[in-house]
Design a protein that fits this description.
Length: about 140
């Protein structure tokens, strides 16, 4: 099980597939908070992208404490996975609406994200890994 500070090409491929991720943040009292999320990745494996809405626990928690973890397990093969610890280095608003539409295409096969609320402001959490553990992602 190779460890790195960046996803391998096989890890990138796993995250480019429509696999659900588990996203862990830290609550104000230090307790872990975990949520299933859609996940995206920069092509070179240097950053993981999570799209959410302003005001949710994910944005509140990562604004206060940027330490996070992301786990992606292949739904068809549980021995193929990537586990990442890292930091949210940026909250990106520009392009976040288009990004969630691309995620809807990836995960739902729909052109537009169907769950958007009228007053919702989307944001991409850009995560820089500092510890990557992968298995079966050759």
């Amino acid at each position: 099980m190779p460890k790195s500070d960046k996803l391998s090409s096989g890890g990138v491929k796993l995250l480019q597939e429509p696999q659900l991720a588990q996203f862990a943040t830290v609550m104000a009292d230090g307790a872990p908070q975990i949520t299933p999320v859609w996940v995206d990745v920069e092509a070179d494996g240097s950053h993981i992208l999570i799209n959410t809405a302003e005001g949710r626990l994910k944005t509140k928690n990562t604004s206060r404490n940027p330490d996070v973890a992301v786990s992606v397990v292949d739904a068809q093969n549980p021995w193929r996975y990537a586990v990442v610890r890292g930091k949210v280095v940026e909250h990106v608003h520009e392009g976040a609406d288009d990004h969630i539409d691309r995620m809807a295409q990836k995960y739902l096969g729909q052109e537009k994200y169907p769950f958007r609320r009228p007053d919702e402001q989307r944001v991409i959490l850009r995560i820089r890994p500092h510890h990557v553990l992968e298995q079966g992602v050759e």
